[in-house]
Amino acid sequence: MNWADKMLLEYKEGRRELNKRVRQLGHLDEDAEEKKQLNSMINEMAFVIEWLETGRQPHTMRGIDKGGAYHRRVLLDMEMFPCLDIEPEEKPLTDEQKQIIVDVLSLLSVRERQCFVLSGAHGRTQEEIAEELGISRNTVKQSIARARKKIDNKIKVYDTQMTPKGALGCKGKLLI
């Protein structure tokens, strides 16, 4: 049994206990407030239980909560195409390129770096990043835009100082 199954059982047991407590309460006015609070907790637990059982946000009509999820996964996971015998060629970075990347990322604020790396390297959506960091989606969007602008400007500086092809080989373009 994995952790999600254990959590599901705990939620179900908790909901049973709350239902039992509601039944024990009488119909007096002093019990009304406690009943209201317990019923609210039961509803929240039922919501979580349904989400854990189905793997989807409850009460959504068309699965909008998964919008674009499959498209992103295709780009991140080549196992989705078993018929293609494509092995991406891994090109190791030189020490100079690694230093440039460190220099470029050090220009970013902590928030910009978090949002940029979660988006570009981990393929997370702005919604997922916002939820994980406890900020609004608009803040994530602005942080990524600021990060991209700072990185683009720094890469242009490196490209003009280095070889004709550029230090990162990207001719002033952001590869992520």
UniProtKB/TrEMBL annotation:
Gene3D superfamilies per UniProt: Winged helix-like DNA-binding domain superfamily/Winged helix DNA-binding domain
Keyword annotations from UniProtKB, A to Z: Sigma factor, Transcription, Transcription regulation
InterPro entries per the UniProt record, alphabetical: RNA_pol_sigma-70-like (IPR039425), RNA_pol_sigma-70_dom (IPR014284), RNA_pol_sigma70_r4_t2 (IPR013249), RNA_pol_sigma_r3/r4-like (IPR013324), Tscrpt_reg_LuxR_C (IPR000792), WH-like_DNA-bd_sf (IPR036388)
Occurrences of domain HTH luxR-type (ranges): 105-163
SMART domains: HTH_LUXR (SM00421)
UniProt cross-references to SUPFAM superfamilies, sorted A to Z: Sigma3 and sigma4 domains of RNA polymerase sigma factors
PANTHER family assigned to the protein according to its UniProt record, in alphabetical order: RNA POLYMERASE ECF-TYPE SIGMA FACTO (PTHR43133), RNA POLYMERASE SIGMA-70 FACTOR ECF SUBFAMILY (PTHR43133:SF46)
Stated name of the protein: HTH luxR-type domain-containing protein
Species whose genome carries this gene: Virgibacillus kapii
